[in-house]
Amino acid sequence: MPRKSSEDYKNTRHYIPQISHEFRSPIKEKLRNLEECYIHEGRVVFDNFTDLRYVRSLFHFVEFECLLEINEQVCPRFILEFYSQYHLSYSDEGQMFVEFVIQNQYFSLCLEDFAQILRIPCEGACVFSDRWSLDELVYGAPSEGPYQTNLPSPDDIISYVREDREGQVTRIRHQEEIEVQNYQILTREIVSTLKPLEEIIRENVFCLGGNRDHVPACLCYMLYCVANSEKFNLAYFMAKRIEWVTKQARLILPYGMLLTRLFDFIISEYPELKNESYVLYDRVMTPLAAQLERKPRRDRGTRRGRQSTSSSSAFDQPSSSHLNDDDDDGNDEGTSRASTPSPIRYVNSLTNQVPQVFQNPPNIDSHLEPFYTRQTEIINRQVQLRDEHRGGVRSIGKSLRKLWRNMEEMSNMRKNSL
To answer: What pTM value is reported for the model?
Structure first.
């Protein structure tokens, strides 16, 4: 998913209400913190996103088809109230209950009822982990009780979801190349037949900002379950994920559209709770849809073709939300080795194929020519990178102005030294 779309959850900030002043401590402080968060609504899946008949055929047995049917408005006030007093409790037999308070009305739903309201599956493997490495997945699976789950080995999961590796795989973190461990899987390594499913699950089950270049362990296991037609308990995962979010400092609040179903249920059962403060908003996050190829456009007198961007995932962002990835790099631009390096790094490998969009300024001092030549090469390379990766400099005009300004300054310095 293009970076611009992957960060569109930030658009939800405009409709998040300020309601903390209506409550007393300690709920007031919790709400004050939640008011500074973003909401991840989930993403509507358009018919043209991929071959949905193929996706449905894989999702059918595990009952993940529900992820294709999410298309609701969002009630931000209800979401804030829900998260501010949410917690999980367990019966003596280990049965999970989802508990929360809305307008001083206490609610306690068994996991099965919670799943039925949200229209998500509540059978199968139960596991929750915020880790990246598959060998840590076992720590998130109950070893006893009604949700006891026996996980496959990390190698079994890898054999179904990851392409074969050739040699050591690396990724870029903090502008540094680091090795990827054997049980860590990069997004670009997911087998092609599961890539569209990976993105649908990532957007509607994990609801992440954060670094998108790698795949969380739980997501890998979900893909394994889909590939093997083994049921996975989405209700268990989502209930635990919500609990995990409420214990973090500032995270993206997941399941914006799904929680509207819970809001509708509560209002229908308790109509006295309905009031004008619960405003429903249309979704603001971009749906999952086919990326259309852009037509060539004229840019500063030079026509350059723009390549289309595929719908493959990549994973990053703000102080406000990511699942931990062992490196704690959710707040920086984590990219795989295949991502775009800096233009400077490419200068030494420039070839004749680099488009000569810009040339050295005329009548420059011969002593300064090497400097301008290198700067011009860098700018031309940035143009090429921008066309190929939809990245690079945001304004070539700004780079040119800086180049000419540097030319004048250095020329003046040389004149003064003579």
So the answer is: 0.71
E strand residue ranges, 254-357: 297-299, 302-304, 335-336
What is the rounded average pLDDT for all residues in the chain? 81
Report the alpha-carbon distance of residue 407 to residue 405 in Å, rounded: 5
Q: Is residue 408 one of the residues assigned to a domain?
A: yes
Inside any domain, residue 46: yes
Task: List Cβ neighbours of 345 (8 Å cut-off, separation of 6 or more).
Answer: none
- Euclidean distance between CA atoms 254 and 201, whole angstroms: 13
What is residue 88's three-state secondary structure? strand
Q: Determine the 3-state secondary structure of 336 from DSSP.
A: strand
Residue-by-residue DSSP string for 351-392:
-TTS-----PPTT--TTTHHHHHHHHHHHHHHHHHHHHHS-S
**H or E stretch including 31?**
helix 27-34
Q: What are phi and psi of 238, to 5 degrees?
A: -65, -40
| Confidence category of residue 286, pLDDT binned at 50, 70, 90 | very high
Domain endpoint, select from 273, 291, 316 = 273
Cβ atoms of 373 and 360 closer than 8 Å: yes
Angle at alpha carbon of residue 324, lines to 321 and 330, rounded to 5°:
50
Burial 197-236 (b: 16+ CB within 10 A, else e): bbbbbbbbbbbbbbbbbbbbbbbbbbbbbbbeeebbbbbb
In a domain, residue 171? The reply is yes
Q: Which domain holds residue 186?
A: 3-273
pLDDT in tens, 237-249: 999 999 999 998 8
Say which residues have a Cβ less than 8 Å from residue 389's Cβ, sequence separation at least 6. Answer: 340
